[in-house]
Each structure stands twice: as structure tokens, then as C-alpha cells.
Amino acid sequence: MPEFQVTKEDYTMTAKVLIVGIDLFIVVTGGDNPHIGTVTTLSSQTDIQTIRYPSHDGRFHKDDILAYRIAKIIKSDLPGSCTITSGVHVNHISKKQIMVSSSMAVDLGQQILKWLKSYKFNATDPIYYSDNENPK
């Protein structure tokens, strides 16, 4: 499972990529309390969509900001679908740490894109019944 990291302002953000056929499942975590705050889906032919989960205090997580940065970078080179879960929490986060979080996500997106352009997917094409065939 490829793993990418970036560290700035005393915290690390990580992206782990699970390859499922030609699809990607990316888990973005970091800080003191990694979690799943948002789920973002996309493909090269579909819009980026996100579900935000409620946090412990009733507000909704904002981790989709990070996933969106990554998604925009890799979108046109995706061979299949992509699902990104994102959950980064830094206890008592500083303004500087908030400011660098977007650039950290961009850095992860660029690392993933570089890997994606060089990775050889060896999944076979699915076989479907034709319109005049039925399962036996």
C-alpha cells in the first residue's frame, strides 16, 4: 500500500492508497486524533462529491477541504473511481498550522499524482453479458 507524508509546523499529514482493481481508496489522516471526518468521491468523468460527518461537538468536520485539494490534482489521471476519507485533527491547532494544512494536502496530491502516472495497473477488464444473453 503506497503511503505518502508531509510534515510542516510540527505535525504530519499522511495519505495511504489502497488499490482496488483500477479504483483508489485514499485515507488521509494526521495530527493528534486521526479520524474519518469526511468521505469524498470522484472519477475523471464525475464531479467531486463529499459527505461530512458530525464531530463530537455537533459541528460538521471540515476535512473535505484537504480531500478536495488532493482530488483536484489527481482527478484527470484517475483510471477508475476514487474515494478519499479524510480526518486530521491537531489539538489546539495554531493559525500557522491551519494555514499550512492546504499546502500540505496539495503536496500529498502531487506525490500521489507522481506515483499514479508511473504505476502500472494490471487489472483485467470485466466481462459483461450482451443484450441478448442472460445468466445460466
UniProtKB/TrEMBL annotation:
Q: Which domain of life is it from?
A: Bacteria
Which InterPro entries has this protein been placed in?
A: LpdD_chaperone-like
Please state every residue range assigned to the domain named Prenylated flavin chaperone LpdD-like.
8-117
Its protein name is Amino acid decarboxylase
